[in-house]
Amino acid sequence: QVQLVESGGGLVQAGGSLRLSCAASGRTFSTYRMGWFRQVPGKEREFVAAISTSGAIKDYADSVKGRFTSSRDNTKNMSYLQMNSLKPEDTAVYYCNTVLTVSKPSTGLGSWGQGTQVTVSS
How many helices (H) and strands (E) does the chain have? Predict the structure, then answer.
């Protein structure tokens, strides 16, 4: 039901920060749990972060805990991923999607969009 568009990616130096945005179209955004995933060419898409409908509950992949923060603004139909202390291994295409559970969902529920490229240089 919800259509999603990712933005905010770019090229940053190791140790830098980026904030990714996920814009949702639809009138029921606040009813969806949201997740962030990333994928490197030739590798499986992996879970990064998830957030409950209200934003009260969050979960993260072990590799990004303490560095990434998921948030959302239901009044704007937006979800965000604040990425700090970026490492070269964070380089990937990042996608947002609705998820079934906040507890490390293995995949998204909807179709995958274009994503946004994050490149971290050394």
Answer: 0, 10
